[in-house]
Amino acid sequence: MASIPSPTPRPGRLPFNFCEPAFFSGLMDDPLLLVQVRPLGRGLLFDCGQLHHLAKRVLRSIDAVFISHAHMDHFMGVDTLVRHVLVSPRTLDFYGPPGIAARFANKLGSYDWNLAEDFWCSFRVHEVHAHGLRTFMFRGPEGFACRFVAERAHSSTGLHVNRYLRVDADLCDHKIPVLIYRITELPGFALDEGRMAVAGLVPGPWIKELKQLFFAGDLQGRRLRIPRGVGDAGPDAEETDAAALYERIRARATPASIGYFTDLGLTPENRRRLKDLLGGVTLLIGECTYLAQDEARARAAHHLCSTDINVLLDELRPAWFLPMHLSKSYLGRSERLFRELEPPAGTTILRLPERLTPRPLIPADLPPAARGRW
What's the pLDDT score for residue 4? Predict the structure, then answer.
């Protein structure tokens, strides 16, 4: 696993409060991003190629999977994931482009489920269309039969939301629909001492109560008793709206964010969608499949080359950029990629080793008994 550096004030770590991104792939391996939500002890998985090297406890901590598209190197790991979460009595959410539910059904339909148990897990699969979401259910106790559930318009609150972050998506073109994703941390509880002083407020137990209401999502309409400023001999003041109070004294900060894109061509429409969704993210993780000398190959395959990445970095202006999904044809020559990348001022390039997944076994690696020798 390549653990991506994270949060300040500790040096050498990205400024995330709640998220811990970890890229479980090398520069040339199948893309596999895990975003751990630290306060929940749960994770979100972005793409699902090779993941046999992930620990079982990691796979079981995943609450939602976000598929960019159903090419094999982004989707074949679903079998491994199902194998490890099968007997967990819960529902796992999958998000993907149009048609992902049928592909999911084909995968699960290739196995026999005649011994299905009532406690098996279920999968809720959401297809992200231009007009909204179509949701399908695959219940383990029913042998994972595909059932259409509902169709709804896109929500202004995001594609997937919990108390600490939201995930948004948009469709780009790879000669098939492909999804790009943005993970944005929601504002944490933070007070501005200067604003408190202006409001005549002094610290006290009311802050703990305000914090509890904040994380419970219960600020609106709640009442708090708060002390007046130092030197005021009057009684405690009663604040009738905790939400309005918090809005007056909260610290203002730009939430940290992660952008993820892979397998798309540098078309004007793709560039517009990338800029609209991923502009200004804290950490950008993106495909760079070809070097500059192979720009023609990139155009023919509807992928990106290092020249394209330089264009996008200038437009998106992330604080950090992690290139990934480099073609295996450059094995042993990946250093050239980093020489060709020319980030704008303020953008730092992060580096991965060429390979992180375990080396495949050969017969000589096995113990004698496994090779029929005693």
Answer: 45
The DSSP H or E segment spanning 291 is none
| Nearest one of 223, 346, 368 to 280, comparing CA atoms | 346
Mean local confidence (pLDDT), 49-72: 94
Task: Decide: 227 and 202 in contact? Cβ < 8 Å.
Answer: yes
CB atoms within 10 A of CB 362: 7
Helix (H) or strand (E) holding 85: helix 78-85
Residue 16's nearest CA partner among 8, 4, 26 is: 8
Return d(Cα 104, Cα 65) in angstroms, integer. 12
CATH topology of domain 2-6+16-187+254-349: Metallo-beta-lactamase; Chain A (3.60.15)
CA atoms within 13 A on the CB side of 213: 19
Convert the pLDDT of each residue in 296-338 to its tens digit.
Answer: 999 999 999 999 999 999 999 999 999 999 999 999 999 999 9
Domain ranges for the chain, please list them: 2-6+16-187+254-349, 193-249
Q: Name which of 220, 228, 266, 262 is nearest 245 in CA terms.
A: 220
CA–CA separation, 305 vs 213, rounded Å? 49
Q: Which of 290, 285, 304, 289 is nearest to 350 (CA)?
A: 285
Q: Single out the residue of 351, 165, 356, 361 nearest to residue 258, CA to CA.
A: 165
Residue 135, SS3 per DSSP: strand
